[in-house]
Design brief:
single chain; 5-stranded parallel beta sheet; alpha/beta; binds flavin-adenine dinucleotide
Length: 387
Amino acid sequence: MLSANKQIAIIGGGPGGLTLARLLALQQVNVKVYERDLDKNARVQGSPLDLHENSGLAALRKADLFDEFKNNYLPGADKTTITNERAEIVYSDHGTKKVEDFGYEHFRPEIDRGTLRKILIESIQAESIVWDSHFLSMEKQGEGWLLHFKNKKSEYADIVIGSDGANSKIRPYITDIKPFYSGITMLEGNIYDGENKLPRLSSILRGGKIMAFGNKKDLLMGQKANGEIGFYASFKAEENWAAKSGLDFYNKSQILEWFKKDYSEWSGIWDELFENAITPFIPRPINCMPLDQTWVALPNLTMIGDAAHLMPPFAGEGVNMAMLDALELSECLTADKYHSVEEAISFYELNMRKRASLIAEESLENGEKMHSRNALTTMTSFFSGEN
Ligand SMILES: Cc1cc2nc3c(=O)[nH]c(=O)nc-3n(C[C@H](O)[C@H](O)[C@H](O)COP(=O)(O)OP(=O)(O)OC[C@H]3O[C@@H](n4cnc5c(N)ncnc54)[C@H](O)[C@@H]3O)c2cc1C
């Protein structure tokens, strides 16, 4: 096997890196994940993730973690209600969608990010994850790389795999291509004890998701396992909106004022989101890697997930692509059909770029549709056609 007797370093313990570590470890490969979080209890932010049959779930099946997933997913959290800006329901699949439909292509069960991370962490030997390892730089040493971390430690690896997300520090060692801004910014908020704090919106949410469209702006929200409701105001904005807006994201009343002004056509029911959210709100400019990006494969360095192909979240594919990368790369690195690691990496990267480019294109198109004047009708017919 190509990876036999090689030390592999995975930089970043997100869903992509941890899935890869699990899949390689199952093949007896020496692998270590270097993660900047101080320990496994770091709070994982963001909305729940929906896993797809032929990517995220396929990777979990191969990792022998499918049953764990089934024991921990959020039944019903994938059910969707679409409303207009007055919170009037125009579409709901609560009455029609099955709670459990594994094996069906359009069944996209949701799981909390933190729970998915926990399942993956617990599937890997504790000593294979090196916490508090914030990667800073590396240099060539012999056939491999000497990695340097913020905690002043240095480690050697024969093969390095970057899975350090959107602002990857590994990417510049492979290519100087940079992400571009999609034109859309999302402002993330979180509400503890959502059902009690937001009785009116919770009765529409019903443990699932709401997508509200109006006047080229969106509000997207979903139930989390711990009773929190996560939401995003999603809108077109100039680049660096967060800095240029002058808003203080720790100041709840300031953000509520901004919402009332910028979403002025929206009914007062939505104000509850901003009144009850914890601070700070998190502005997330949505970036994407160029669709035609390419680079020359290196003999001992590659990347997966957002590090390789950051894309907007409007097709719900980011984590699925990261986990499928992990599946495909693990197969390339452990198969006997390549003559060298470089050839295996080259084969993986060629497929990965082609696949990710198509999905990123779809994600960009969805982003445009969801922020267009016709968003409500377009998205309603999209969801109606699926069931
Ligand atoms: C607002 C928003 C909503 C989204 N919604 C969805 C959705 O519904 N469905 C979906 O599929 N995707 C969604 N995504 C995208 C999804 O979150 C990502 O595609 C996915 O998390 C990528 O996984 P990853 O493992 O590649 O990177 P990440 O999840 O970003 O993990 C990277 C890891 O690397 C670590 N790290 C970073 N830098 C370093 C360093 N220098 N040294 C060491 N460790 C480092 C980080 O701490 C982290 O643990 C959304 C994204 C956003 C912004």
